[in-house]
């Protein structure tokens, strides 16, 4: 097991370098960012040249990448154009986004899995049909529609919540944005759990458990659910990374100063340092989340072993 | 217990992965009357908050609150009035002697002296400080020594600046510029305290100035709380207890927060909300002209566009654009059709005049005739370039093209050419890669007709992106700058503008308005000609 984890960690190294290099090149292709700093007028050439030198933009791309990576390993992610170190931006943005993601994941697990279990056990009944229909609606409505609608109804019309989240972003203010962020994944989790449960309900080990005379509750939680969760866990695991990086729309709607917002601003201002820095961390999150998912398989299903 | 071992490993990896810290900032909760706090929408300033390094409106808002310069532009008329300057004297429009009023201090108690100005200007001009507005000092003698076009600076300070005593300093310009004192209300000319030079990082994290407000707390990227400075010596004291600027991720969200009653002032009503603004805010919506003009620049470096009969072609294109209709339907009247190359905020005395005349009014038949006389659209199709990331430029460029295509009766005459990001767009513009007309927006730095003409159309001027060049225009601009009488100078500038019109060096489109909405909690809200709210006059009910 320990060896497996180490092997997986080592595998992350080439993935990490490849991903960062790709991002670095992509941001670079967008062209020289200095011209955008002077508004609708030309930067004077001397200042532009100095700024280019300061941000290392006058060097060839491979050298820029090498320097950047060298700095990253000493904990220096560079400086954004407004003079703020990228690590400071991360220190502000990641806690907020992690909180938002946690809220979203909790919604996915609690609501998604419960609905999935209920519908899976009552396949074909009215409740199953109505939940299926509901998930279909949620999946087909884009996030920004749900977000703006809830913001308008709950925030402006009924005044239940504040439409904009404050910079500190406490958990209480993140509940509605978290629900919006989770909505689509939540629907998928419901459907995945439902199918999986419905399938395993007819499995031999469930029949055996029932035949042994185990209470229904125990059959469902210990035998049926535990085995049915593997595809769901895979989905939720990969979703962590997607939720953290893909919250751009939700964060903009609800004024959440998190990772999505910083990425958006970095891209608009063509700020290589911000974009590459944040994406690097997101790549790490993805990798670690995937590792955790694989390890969880073994916890859920004793038949799966790693060596 | 194999399961438990697995769980342990998983938990370990999780612990490694998640090491997060949380942090919070302060919160404000209004208050009312003279001590009430105004909350206002904000965007993260693009550059560090230094006076000579701030070239956009978000940073400009802060500077307008914490700094006062030699001159201050009247929020209503735009007229440059003496602020810290007691008098600015000159006999030859080149040598200026500036005397400061006494009694002014920075909010940290330090006196504002002639040295505060000279040091600040030398800092702003010097190449090594990377100040994006350095060129504002370009007219001062010795600028080319501290800020050469390329290579290293040859001097530490500009030879044209000399401190005489605590309250007096002299400025020598490298050429005559009679209206120069009027430019001194621009934020780049603000004085700086010693703290700025002694501990630069500390100053940047909490700027200290000499304006009616002081910075109480500043959480970069999220919020700045400004408090009224009770010891402020000027006459334009703050009418409220302070202003809290809140960064919004999106101006739509700020607008929603305003309608929900959580925000007092939004100074940029999003285009998508303009239809609802009357219903949502009623008379708490402001829509006034700002010193911003949008034009179509022409690539004169491209032979196809610089033909002997090219002026007819350009005039034809101008006449094919239905400005009235586009400003009404696309911009909901937040733009005004242009009739010259300046801005209505200058007022008639300042030089605003219908100089474009018929050439800016829509006439399909005449347009068709002029374009044909001018040799037709180069290559049969012209592509109007714009940046697609901000400012919803696509809508109006498509509308302009439709208008041109309809007028010329040719569906292929004009198409839009979107460029992904603003930076890339500006790159293509400044490296002269344009093959057709391209969008240009100009926000004035100071309300002078000179600022709308010289930087944009003078031969090889800093923002002459189309590279239009006309010796007569240049001659008239030089003449106007040397003219000591303001009224006469304005008239000569207008003659220069007529030269620009006769050759149609750029096609004027419309003047942009500033828009703002505010809550019932506040009153006496106005926008100045730079479309920045006049914060110090806002009253909290």
TrEMBL record, chain A:
<keyword id="KW-1133">Transmembrane helix</keyword>
<keyword id="KW-0813">Transport</keyword>
<keyword id="KW-0812">Transmembrane</keyword>
<feature type="domain" description="ABC transmembrane type-1">
    <location>
        <begin position="94"/>
        <end position="297"/>
    </location>
</feature>
<dbReference type="InterPro" id="IPR000515">
    <property type="entry name" value="MetI-like"/>
</dbReference>
<feature type="transmembrane region" description="Helical">
    <location>
        <begin position="12"/>
        <end position="31"/>
    </location>
</feature>
<keyword id="KW-1003">Cell membrane</keyword>
<dbReference type="Pfam" id="PF19300">
    <property type="entry name" value="BPD_transp_1_N"/>
</dbReference>
<feature type="transmembrane region" description="Helical">
    <location>
        <begin position="275"/>
        <end position="300"/>
    </location>
</feature>
<feature type="transmembrane region" description="Helical">
    <location>
        <begin position="224"/>
        <end position="249"/>
    </location>
</feature>
<comment type="similarity">
    <text>Belongs to the binding-protein-dependent transport system permease family.</text>
</comment>
<keyword id="KW-0472">Membrane</keyword>
<dbReference type="InterPro" id="IPR045621">
    <property type="entry name" value="BPD_transp_1_N"/>
</dbReference>
<dbReference type="InterPro" id="IPR035906">
    <property type="entry name" value="MetI-like_sf"/>
</dbReference>
<feature type="transmembrane region" description="Helical">
    <location>
        <begin position="174"/>
        <end position="192"/>
    </location>
</feature>
<protein>
    <submittedName>
        <fullName>ABC transporter permease</fullName>
    </submittedName>
</protein>
<dbReference type="Pfam" id="PF00528">
    <property type="entry name" value="BPD_transp_1"/>
</dbReference>
<feature type="transmembrane region" description="Helical">
    <location>
        <begin position="131"/>
        <end position="154"/>
    </location>
</feature>
<feature type="transmembrane region" description="Helical">
    <location>
        <begin position="98"/>
        <end position="119"/>
    </location>
</feature>
């Amino acid at each position: 097991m320990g060896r497996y984890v180490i092997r997986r960690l080592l595998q992350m190294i080439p993935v990490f370098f490849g991903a960062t290099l790709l991002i670095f090149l992509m941001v670079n292709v967008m062209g020289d960012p200095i011209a955008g700093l002077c508004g609708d007028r030309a930067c004077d050439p001397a200042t532009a040249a100095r700024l280019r030198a300061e941000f290392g933009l006058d060097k060839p791309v491979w050298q820029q990448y090498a320097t950047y990576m060298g700095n990253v390993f000493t904990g220096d992610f560079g400086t954004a154009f407004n003079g703020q170190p990228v690590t400071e931006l991360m220190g502000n943005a990641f806690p907020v986004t992690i909180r938002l993601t946690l809220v979203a994941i909790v919604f996915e697990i609690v609501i998604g899995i419960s609905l999935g279990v209920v519908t899976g056990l009552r396949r074909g009944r009215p409740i199953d049909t109505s939940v299926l229909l509901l998930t279909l609606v949620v999946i087909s409505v884009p996030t920004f529609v749900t977000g703006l609608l809830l913001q308008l109804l709950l925030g402006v019309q009924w005044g239940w919540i504040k439409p904009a989240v404050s910079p500190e972003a406490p958990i209480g203010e993140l509940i509605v944005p978290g629900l919006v962020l989770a909505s689509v994944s939540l629907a998928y989790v419901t459907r995945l759990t439902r199918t999986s449960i419905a399938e395993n309900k007819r499995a031999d080990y469930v029949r055996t458990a029932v035949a042994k005379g185990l209470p229904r509750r125990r059959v469902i939680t210990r035998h049926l659910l535990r085995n049915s969760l593997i595809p769901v866990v895979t989905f939720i695991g990969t979703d962590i990374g997607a939720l953290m990086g893909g919250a751009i729309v939700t964060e903009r709607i609800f004024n959440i100063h998190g990772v999505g917002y910083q990425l958006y601003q970095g891209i608009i201002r063509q700020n290589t340092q911000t974009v590459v820095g944040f994406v690097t961390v997101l790549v790490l999150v993805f990798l670690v989340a995937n590792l955790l998912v694989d390890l969880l398989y073994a916890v859920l299903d004793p038949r799966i072993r790693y060596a | 217990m194999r399961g438990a071992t697995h769980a342990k490993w998983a938990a370990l990896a999780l612990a490694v992965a998640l090491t997060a810290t949380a942090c919070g900032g302060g919160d404000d909760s209004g208050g009312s009357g003279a001590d009430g706090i105004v909350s206002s929408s904000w965007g993260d300033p693009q550059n560090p908050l230094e006076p000579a390094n701030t070239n956009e409106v978000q940073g400009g808002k802060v500077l307008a609150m914490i700094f006062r310069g030699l001159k201050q532009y009247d929020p209503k008329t735009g007229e440059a009035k003496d602020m810290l300057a007691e008098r600015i004297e000159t006999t030859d429009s080149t040598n200026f002697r500036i005397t400061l009023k006494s009694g002014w201090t920075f909010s940290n108690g330090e006196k504002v002296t002639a040295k505060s100005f000279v040091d600040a200007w030398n800092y702003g001009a010097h190449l090594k400080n990377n100040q994006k507005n350095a060129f504002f000092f370009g007219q001062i003698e010795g600028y080319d020594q501290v800020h050469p076009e390329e290579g290293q600076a040859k001097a530490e300070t500009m030879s044209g600046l000399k401190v005489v005593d605590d309250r007096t300093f002299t400025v020598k310009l490298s050429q005559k510029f009679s209206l120069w004192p009027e430019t001194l209300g621009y934020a780049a000319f603000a004085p700086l305290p010693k703290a700025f030079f002694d501990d630069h990082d500390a100053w940047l994290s909490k700027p200290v100035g000499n304006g009616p407000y002081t910075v109480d707390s500043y959480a970069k990227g999220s919020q700045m709380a400004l408090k009224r400075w009770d010891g402020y010596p000027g006459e334009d004291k703050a009418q409220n207890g302070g202003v809290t600027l809140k960064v919004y991720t999106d101006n739509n969200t700020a607008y929603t927060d305003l309608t929900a009653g959580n925000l007092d002032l939004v100074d940029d009503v999003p285009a998508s909300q303009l239809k609802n603004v009357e219903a949502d805010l009623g008379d708490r919506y402001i829509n006034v002209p700002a010193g911003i003009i949008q034009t179509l620049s022409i690539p004169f470096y491209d032979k196809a566009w610089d033909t002997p009969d090219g002026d007819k072609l350009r005039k034809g294109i101008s006449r094919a654009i239905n400005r009235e209709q586009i400003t009404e339907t696309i911009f909901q009247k937040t733009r005004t059709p242009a009739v010259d190359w300046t801005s209505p905020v200058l007022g008639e005395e300042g030089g605003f005049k219908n100089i474009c005349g018929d050439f800016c009014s829509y006439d399909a038949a005449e347009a068709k005739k002029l374009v044909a006389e001018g040799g037709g659209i180069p290559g049969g199709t012209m592509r109007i370039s714009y940046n697609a990331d901000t400012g919803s430029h696509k809508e109006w460029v498509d509308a302009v093209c439709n208008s041109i295509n309809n007028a010329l009766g040719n569906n292929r005459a004009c198409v839009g050419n979107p460029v992904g990001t603003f930076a890339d767009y500006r790159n293509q513009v400044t490296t002269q890669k344009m093959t057709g007309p391209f969008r240009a927006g100009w926000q004035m730095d100071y309300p002078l007709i000179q600022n709308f003409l010289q930087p944009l159309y003078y031969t090889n001027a800093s923002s002459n992106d189309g590279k239009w060049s006309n010796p007569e225009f240049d001659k008239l601009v030089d003449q106007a700058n040397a003219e000591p009488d303001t009224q006469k100078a304005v008239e000569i500038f207008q003659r220069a503008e007529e030269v620009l019109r006769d050759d149609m060096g750029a096609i004027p489109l419309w003047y942009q308005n500033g828009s703002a909405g505010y809550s019932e909690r506040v009153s006496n809200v106005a926008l100045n000609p730079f479309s920045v709210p006049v914060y110090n006059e806002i009253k909290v009910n």
